[in-house]
Amino acid sequence: MRCRCMSRRRRISVLLICCMSLLIVSLDNTIVNVALPALGRELRAPVSGLQWTVDAYTLTLASLLMLSGSTADRIGRRRVFQTGLAVFTTGSVLCSVAPSLLWLVVFRAVQAIGGSMLNPVAMSIITNTFTDRRERAQAIGVWGGVVGISMALGPVVGGLLTDTVNWRAIFWINVPIGLLAIALTWRFVPESKAAKARRIDPVGQILVIALLGPLTYGIIEGPEAGWTSPLIMGCFAVAVLALVALLVYEPRRDEPLIDVRFFRSAPFSGAAAIAVSGFAALGSFLFLNTLYLQSHRGLSALEAGLYTLPIALISLVFGPVSGRLVGTRGPRLSLLVAGACVAAAGVLLTQITLTTPIPVLLAIYVVFGLGFAMLNPPITTTAVSGMPLAQAGVAAAVASTSRQVGQSLGVAIAGSVVAVSAHGSGFIRAAHVGWWIMALYGVLVLCVGLATTGRWAKATAERTARRLTAAEPVEAR
After folding, report:
1. Mean pLDDT across the chain, nearest whole number?
2. Which has the closest alpha carbon to 291: 476, 194, 431, 166?
3. Which end of the chain has fewer CB within 10 Å, C or N?
4. How far apart are CA 294 and CA 312, in angstroms?
């Protein structure tokens, strides 16, 4: 069935199914954070162990997203999407029975292998289902709203399950949603693939893993091993060499894993940079705030989750608003508001202590929540706008990869900042450094958003779109 012939009702059904997959993947990004102190106590995990519990998931996602996106364009989006749902659901069951920290980290990576087949593929399905430009922008706005809602609700749901059952229950919630999504995908989502199949790029895939893995390992383990130790210096050296190799090798391939032509578009490059910065801020906030509220202010997991409820409520209201703004006025206003609010929240958090009044904290959370709610829709819309439908999976995967890379680095950097100061006032002083870094992420979002949404940037996007369209066949939908 050609997507352009689908009824509006079925198109909405496809959008909702894709949002279900997004719900469990994004929820899992944040639901684990609030359970970290509980699982850390049971599994006797140090701060670095808590970081790996989060980053094993986000790093694996980041490493495989582009491969999954291009594979779906090649062999069939629905097929890859259903496979991802099955693997993610199985990984969730395994995480719930993990006997040790090592096995939990391994099973988190299994989850992420499945998750890598969901978000970019779902975005590609949406892009090929909603062919009208305005309708597509509205659909992506709904998608962006779900990202904000699910990632903000994670701490609340995680806190409730951790306190009322135990930390293992946070993985159970994925199972019924995943099974339902598999059945609905088979019933409602038509199969689609690119008109011209893209070849696999194993060298590019290995280089991406060689870049992200050692870089994150070095940041997380640096405080314990020593920043100048041969192991840590070697990790950073491998990451740099992998980056250089990617920049040299990928442009020489006819069908690379990372199509560097995309980055000739200033809005696309800006979207990637903004995704890294914005989600680094999110990763930093969730990790530091969990330790602050539970380990140092003595709150329960549920109480800590409820304190972040303002973020969920703000995302519920302003995520769709941002989507509509992007659809009608472009991405600039949403990005400027997002960057300003994230930066302001970071600055305000540098003033908190162990006795800061709760209303003050909640007000700061509202500011951060507004910034994050406004962030997602312009990233996604800018990343896929103007790209040929035949490469929609790869383009969406680059944006999703940037998000996961940002969150991984945010957790790694924030954890390393506080790893050597894990108690009392020492933690607060170290956390203030982390909050200043978060404010810097917000400034980067603001500046890059301003620079990549003007006339010059739009002209580069139009030139890039023409070149890509001329180089690729129009995909039959």
Report:
1. 84
2. 431
3. N
4. 19
The model's pTM:
0.82
Over residues 26-83, the pLDDT tens digits come to 888 778 888 888 988 899 888 888 889 988 998 888 888 878 877 887 888 899 999 9
Supply 67's token pair.
């491969």
> What per-residue confidence (pLDDT) applies to 3?
46
Predicted local confidence at residue 87, as pLDDT: 96
pLDDT in tens, 79-136: 999 999 999 999 999 999 999 999 999 999 999 999 988 877 887 788 788 877 777 7
Give CA–CA dist 364/6, Å, rounded: 44
Give alpha helix (H) positions in 44-76.
Answer: 47-75
Residue 276 has pLDDT above 90, yes or no: yes
Please give, one letter per residue, the 3-state secondary structure of the chain.
CCHHHCCHHHHHHHHHHHHHHHHHHHHHHHHHHHHHHHHHHHHCCCHHHHHHHHHHHHHHHHHHHHHHHHHHHHHCHHHHHHHHHHHHHHHHHHHHCCCCHHHHHHHHHHHHHHHCCCHHHHHHHHHHHCCCHHHHHHHHHHHHHHHHHHHHHHHHHHHHHHHHCCHHHHHCCHHHHHHHHHHHHHHHCCCCCCCCCCCCCHHHHHHHHHHHHHHHHHHHHHHHHCCCCHHHHHHHHHHHHHHHHHHHHHHHCCCCCCCHHHHHCHHHHHHHHHHHHHHHHHHHHHHHHHHHHHHHCCCCHHHHHHHCHHHHHHHHHHHHHHHHHHHHHCCHHHHHHHHHHHHHHHHHHCCCCCCCCHHHHHHHHHHHHHHHHHHHHHHHHHHHCCCCHHHHHHHHHHHHHHHHHHHHHHHHHHHHHHHCCCCHHHHHHHHHHHHHHHHHHHHHHHHHHHHCCCHHHHHHHHHHHHHHHHHCCCCCC
**Spatial distance between the Cα atoms of 424 and 446, rounded to a whole number of angstroms:** 33
Structure tokens of 270? Answer: 């800006």
pLDDT at 319: 78
Burial of 67 (0-12, 13-18, 19+ CB in 10 A): buried
